[in-house]
From TrEMBL:
This is Zn-dependent aminopeptidase. Keywords: Aminopeptidase, Hydrolase, Protease, Signal. Residues 1-21 form the signal peptide. GO terms for molecular function: aminopeptidase activity.
Length: 213
């Protein structure tokens, strides 16, 4: 088993829509009243390159720069879309104008070819949480509500399987790349002026939080 350490604490990643001139990280508001949430990830990951499976530990410091108190948070579990019966699979096979790159390919995946991402042993500042997995979204009721300007530390274990490449991320693509790893970890959903962005993944664009990885 090959070990991959992901401890990218110095790189600031733009994972959100909107222009960079509007962004003020780690600050509740700017002169125009603009605010944006902040995340700081640390992850330690083991990848089994023969089975295309991985396990990891994640520590996330989440800062609430919004004017609202949050009693829950949400994570994206994108790899869960790549399995028979998922919302992405059903939609791809039944809508009037399906993505021809997907079609019925997800429905035909075998158990050792699907994608998945699951979370366990989750805590908030040391207190055990009971998250609920709903397809490609993880719903997390906080043990202690997060007031404006406060930060909290969320820790969790996760395990996943890289799917045969259907679209974007996956393994063994036609160009001969063994692992195309994108959106593979439990990823905090964006909370902005419109509320939580928790749409299930069906093959469209991503919207995420500014942060450090």
């Amino acid at each position: 088993m090959k070990k991959i350490i992901l401890l990218l604490t110095t790189a600031v990643i733009l994972a959100s829509c909107g222009s960079s001139k509007d962004v003020v990280a780690n600050q509740s508001t700017n002169a125009n009243g603009y605010w944006q949430q902040a995340v700081d990830y640390k992850m330690d990951v083991d990848m089994d390159v023969d089975r295309y499976q991985y396990t990891g530990k994640q520590t996330l410091v989440y800062t609430n720069n919004s004017p609202e108190t949050l009693d829950r948070v949400y994570y994206h579990l994108f790899f869960n879309a790549f399995q028979p019966g998922s919302e992405m699979d059903v939609r791809s096979r039944t809508i009037a104008d399906p993505d021809r790159r997907v079609g019925s390919r997800i429905a035909a995946l075998e158990p050792n070819e699907i994608g998945y991402l699951h979370v366990s042993n989750m805590t908030q500042d040391g207190t055990t949480l009971q998250p609920q997995e709903e397809g490609t979204v993880l719903v997390v009721k906080l043990a202690k509500a997060l007031a404006p300007g406060q930060s909290t530390t969320l820790k969790l274990d996760f395990n996943g399987q890289v799917p045969v490449q259907v679209r974007r991320s996956g393994r063994n693509n036609k160009e001969g790349v063994a692992l195309s790893m994108t959106q593979w970890f439990p990823k905090m959903a964006e909370f902005d002026a419109t509320g939580w962005n928790t749409s299930p993944y069906i093959g469209r664009e991503f919207h995420g939080v500014w942060g450090k990885f």
